[in-house]
Hints:
binds adenosine-5'-triphosphate
Amino acid sequence: MRIKGGYLDLSSPAQAGGVPVLVLKEGSNRSRGREAQHANITAAKIVAESVRSALGPKGMDKMLVDSFGDVTITSDGRTILDEMDIQHPAAKMLVEVAKTQDNEAGDGTTSAVVIAGELLNKAEELIDKNIHPTIIIDGYKKAAEKALDTLEKIAIPVDLKKQDYLKKAAVTAMASKIVAEYKEYLADIAVKAMLEVAEKECITYKCDVEDVKVEKKTGESISDTSLINGIVLDKEIAHSGMPKRVEKAKIALLDTSLEIEKTEFDAKINIESPDQIEAFLKQEETMLKDMTEKIVAAGAKVVICQKGIDDMVQHFLARKGIVAIRRAKKSDMEKLAKATGGKIVTKLDDITSADLGYAALVEERRIGDDKMTFVEGCKHPRAVTLLIRGGTERITSEAERSLHDALCVIKDILEEPKVVAGGSAPELEMARTLKMYAETLPGREQLAVKIFAEALEAVAITLTENAGLDPIDILSELRARHDKGETWAGIEVLEGKVQDMTKKGVFEPITVKKQMIKSATEAASMILKIDDVIAAGKMKAPPMPPGGAPGGMYPGAGEY
Ligand SMILES: Nc1ncnc2c1ncn2[C@@H]1O[C@H](COP(=O)(O)OP(=O)(O)OP(=O)(O)O)[C@@H](O)[C@H]1O
Ligand SMILES: [Mg+2]
């Protein structure tokens, strides 16, 4: 073992009594100290740089082509990073920031990544001035706490009896997306949808974005997107002889196939006469008829089955005037059970009338070139579907992502009814208080808190740059107006001027901003704390783990 620059060199053979001792596997790569830090910070900065131009209403979109040639056009931070298929371990941590931000708050993924990148960029400058990373990390921790404190202090409380802030936040979330032209219309729908599924708890609500079912169908335009009070299934009715419309429908939800099950082993039946064939077929028919009878006996008028339905059963059901849908998605079955009050039956023998759900109307309708089934007027009204329309599949997909952001910000406010204005006003206000706070700190931590404040200003700089404005002029004006006590002075990029953002109706949930600070600080601190990267060499022939993709792939440090 050799000592290199104060470190133990584990990757080169050491001599112990003349015998070489290998600690790491052959082909392993190791980088450490400044070199490791620099590589990690650079990789993370590149990731942040790649999403920067997508921030804000004037941000650009990215076209991402995956290995199958499928194209995604988006300005959603998380989607961009997910599709980029990043390999570098430190860069991957920024992808994690976007993921956490998306899971916890649903919006603000681009901002969180931009701030994390800037925190690292500024930290590198201090490291180069010989300030130890742990001092920077401590400073960042203190700064983050102070920033969160400031957010709480400046936040505007929301009265949930009125829906104006919900709508404004939804409009802001969609202002930066391809669907921006229709943001007002879509925001109305999103607010209605979320309020329909939210459960009231004293003054706040509890809600799950997943309760709003989203279906998309190419055709018409985004302005034809609609909210349906009920569940829409992307399925047509199984048999042409079945009714297309059933009112006051009792619905059986089945998680069992209405087919004769095949045996797991091969069996041979010796048939010696035509009578035997007939008897055999008759037997099969009786079994299938029995299945139909059980459904009829339970009193169902509609059958929605997660698995297959035999042609013969479809025929029998059609004769009885029962509507059937086969191969429904598991997630749809769960939503249907919740909405119609029905139970998902796994064994047909057990079905009784008590298991059936209820909907006022089940109807097949033609949407574009396809047919979809609408289950409306459900027993429990907390079931809604957003049916997204749009000229091409790419537009409907981006509309789905944008509506997801809108639903998330509405949920955020319903769960924590506080908002802040947008256009970088809260970031500038946090930066201002942090700079004052820094003055109270002793020594080098002061520098760390100051660069944290500067990193927050990166949001204003990026929004301005993306709008083709001059960041120096705008930033100086923003700083000056915040110093004068204008808490909500922000850059209104559509007008290209510094404005009071509360007057412009640009609001965002406090949850998004808080999470942005937390996830960006955590990721930056984690990356700064690494001073040693030990990477195993690439496996020559990766073994296939049982039923899985090749495991153990990890790029060597030299390949980053
Ligand atoms: N009219 C406006 N003027 C200025 N800034 C605005 C305006 N509308 C929205 N913004 C700002 O744009 C930023 C949001 O941009 P964007 O939605 O592209 O990124 P994100 O929310 O950070 O990430 P993502 O939406 O990709 O998860 C917020 O800082 C918001 O305040
Ligand atoms: Mg956004």
